[in-house]
Amino acid sequence: MPKAFSILIPTYNERDNIAPLLERIAAALPDIDYEVLFVDDNSHDGTAELINSLSNHYPTRVIVRKDKRGLATAVTDGFSWVDSDTILVMDADMQHPPEIIPSLIQAIQDGADIAVASRYVKGGGTSGWSTIRKIISGGAIMLSHILLPHSRHVKDPMSGFFAFRRSVIGGVKLSPIGYKILLEMLVVGKADKVSEVPFMFCLRQKGESKLNVSQEGEYLRHLFSLMRRSGEITRFLKFLLVGASGTVVNLGLLWLLHDQNTLGWDIRIALLIAIEMSVFTNFLLNNYFTFRDRRQSGAGAFIKNCLRYNFFSIPAGLLNWVTTVVLTDKSNGPYIILNLIGIAVAMVWNFVANSLWTWNKK
Ligand code: GDD
Ligand code: MN
User: Fold this and answer.
1) How far is CA 58 from the centre of its chain?
2) Between the CA atoms of 111, 291, 238 and 171, what dihedral angle is there, to the nearest 10 degrees?
3) Ligand 2 ion local residues (Cβ < 5 A)
4) What is each CA distance from 269 to 232, 273, 299, 310, in whole angstroms?
5) Which residues have C-beta within 8 Å of that of residue 19, sequence separation ≥ 6?
6) How confident is the model over 329-360, as pLDDT tens digits?
7) Which of 121, 206, 246, 269 is the most buried (most CB within 10 A)?
8) pTM, 2 dp
9) What distances in angstroms separate CA 263 from CA 164, 208, 270, one per listed residue?
């Protein structure tokens, strides 16, 4: 008979934490038919032996992996050793208070596919963290919000404390790198509804953290891998391609309207039209190509998004226009080259403004 739910806990040298942890879990879950599966990576402090000796008192067992190491794969391997429909993942060091477990399970029963114990919703937090650790944590979350749209609606996608329905990972290939299993599941798993329950991430009482600097590098590799697997890298390349096509439209139209051998219009007017047309074709291509999957249908949405795109293009367009007009006034270089300089200036501004604007967005 599958249990009501399974608690999965990765361990590496956590001997002193096991007994108090199991005791607190038992106290938090009276009259509930749960099991605790530890996935231990061959700890040399007797963690697995201790768990085995406690299995008469608590509904617990341990799997020891002799040849593998790593938090993420310990957890994903663990998924195949439990058969409940609801699985809860947490750490062994009591930085994840077992008293929160009932709220997480309740959130799943209320319809969530994933319930996250969150440090970043009202009522949650961290205690005893240095400013630098707070900045790193906030920066990591901001990066994932920018680069992975699937993580945007979750305030704490880095939490290692969460419950989920098995259907979220049904038929899905999980290949996390490093620590962030939840992020992996949010991006490649099948979860419609994610809810967050606040909790306080306290300092570790016993044993040592296994997190070190190399984990930051692993996190970046994981982000990149998720961007590739979820199609966000392709999207970015498409965006660059569209930008290049806009440059061609801008230069081509300027030639057609301004060149002495064609229409010969004043450069101020010609350039204004050329820039506006390139903004418009960029919008069209981004709408039907780069962001096709996120395009809203209907004439109203088309007009609204087109105006929005134009609005955000005003500063760059203006910079392009002013730079090119000033340069042609002051020098007699070929106007196509001078306009290319204008476009380059606009692009630099665009890049800086976008990253600043995006960094401010939370
Ligand atoms: N099996 C196994 N193998 N378990 C491991 C390994 C490993 O290689 N490395 C760590 N663990 C276990 C630890 O024994 C502990 O139970 C849990 O994974 C978390 O390890 P910590 O070293 O305590 O991590 P942390 O507190 O720095 O990080 C935690 O909090 C972060 C949020 O700040 C984790 O939950 C992270 O996932 C989370 O992002
Ligand atoms: Mn910890």
Assistant:
1) 37
2) 30
3) 93, 95
4) 38, 6, 29, 18
5) 50, 54
6) 999 899 999 999 999 999 888 767 655 654 44
7) 246
8) 0.81
9) 65, 75, 9
Q: In this structure, which residue's CA is closest to atom 32 in ligand 1? A: 159
The ligand minimizing its distance to the Cα of 9 is: 1
Sign of CA dihedral 236, 240, 246, 248: negative
- The three-point CA angle 257-263-264 to 5° equals 85
Is the pLDDT score of 160 beyond 50? yes
Q: What is the pLDDT of residues 243-283, one digit of tens each?
A: 999 999 999 999 999 999 999 999 999 999 999 999 999 99
Mean pLDDT, range 43-66, rounded to an integer: 97
Calpha distance 8→89 (Å, rounded): 5
In terms of C-beta distances under 8 Å and separation of at least 24 residues, what long-range contacts does 277-282 make, across chains too? 277/249, 277/250, 277/253, 278/246, 278/247, 278/249, 278/250, 278/253, 279/246, 279/309, 279/310, 279/313, 279/317, 280/306, 280/310, 281/245, 281/246, 281/249, 282/242, 282/243, 282/245, 282/246, 282/309, 282/313
* 95-116 per-position pLDDT tens digit: 999 999 999 999 999 999 999 9
- Given a contact cutoff of 8 angstroms between Cβ atoms, the answer to whether 80 and 172 are in contact is no
8 in contact with ligand 1, CB cutoff 6 A: no
**Residue 66 pLDDT:** 93
pLDDT value of position 359: 43
Instruction: Say if ligand 1 is within 6 A of residue 210 CB.
Output: yes
Which mutation among 50, 71, 93, 156 tests ligand 1's pocket best, with the greatest number of atoms within 8 A of CB? Answer: 71
- What's the gap in Å between 209 CA and the centre of ligand 1? 7
Average pLDDT of the chain, as a whole number: 92
Structure-token pair, residue 190: 């099948």
The pair phi, psi for residue 333, each rounded to 5°, is -65, 165
